[in-house]
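Appendix B. One record, verbatim.
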Amino acid sequence: MAKVLYLITKSNWGGAQRYVYDLATHLPEGFEPVVAVGLPLIEESLQGLFAWRLRQKSIRIIALPEAQRDISFVKELRLLIRLFKIVWEERPDILHVNSSKLGGLGAFVGWVTWTRTVFTAHGWPFNEDRPWYWRKFSYFFSWLTSMFATITVTITQKDFTQGKKMWLVGHKMQLVYSAIEQIDFYSRDEARKTLSWWGHKFMQGRAKTPSQILWVGVIAELTPNKGLKYLAEVAEHINGVEFIVVGDGELSEDLGPTKLKLVGFATEANRYLKAFDIFVLPSLKEGLPYTLLEAGQAGLPVVASNIGGIPDIIGQAGMLVPPKNSELLARSLSALIKDERLRQTLGQQLQSRVAKEFNFENFLSQTYALYA
């Protein structure tokens, strides 16, 4: 039986973790998945949700507490030695690395041990809004990781184009779009009732019933990269609409006093998407966001930042705005709020596009083909 060893840094439930989870839990017969994850395994906690879900599927997990520490030469050397030990003991046929830090060290271990190594770049870090010297270093590190890896997978067209231009490694680049399985959505009324209750009954006492009020919603971690402060600015100037945020994070206290209604973290949050009339994603940084694929499946019209893999998903079936631009974000949302027919048209177009271009079976087969 062929063994696939997945390496990933964090054990929270994010896009990269969902990517690994989908691959590890759908491997065809004849493959054995093992996942080495960087954070301590905290039973049934949010930080350990990824590991907990893997356990539910009987996927074997190897803890890598060394990977969570601050970067230093001594600590990275210890992590490197630990990775060598794991690869030596596990003897994987395929090593699939999935984050910048573990990606580089893992790809080096794979290169030294002659293990076929697949590196998935979940968004090139050198595209981030950082000082030029940091971007230069991250570009070199990304290039070096691809040098050590057998194959580099990119999940957006922009990253693929940039990767193809990298010296000596362009031929290793493969573009494989992530995808999602069909979601079992709650009905609009059921989803709204539940989210209203979770949000401390924020609809109570309003003149209109929840079903009559237009909801603009987002599912996201409350972190600066999600650009929610710009959505909060927009919400201050649009009346008669509820702005719903499903998720938790470091900015919960900062966003609390705004007009955004914070529902908090929800397990299987995507099942509640039909509660929304419009989906918005004002992010500053993204790879290929699963939440937009989910919104597309739900048939929602979308307004999102024109960054990362968002244009790959939206195409002409939604509204794209520059990041950090509250004015254009407000204009786009206002246009959708005022025009029900436009909402229906864009929602149907995105639903069709996601079903055709982001097929889950194609994602699996194209990725597994790289293991051969």
